Predict the 3D structure of the following.
Amino acid sequence: TGREVVDFEERGDRVAVRLDDGEEVEADLLVGADGLHSAVRRRLLGDQPLRYAGYTSWRGICRDPEFASLDRTTESWGAGARFDPAV
């Protein structure tokens, strides 16, 4: 968190990712989970318009480990269903 992916390059069976602060990170795998206006998506598919797929998500980051303890956080996934952890 706190840094942005600006580009990446495949290098044989590895991938090099360049971050907005100039750092380059090399790894075996790149997962394009860098947001709605993803640099990874743009690099793979070009400047295509975004397409609504029928899903909505809310995400948040909390830097206080006491506030975000495992007994106070949740993540739920489902197709056409609503999950309510309070029920």
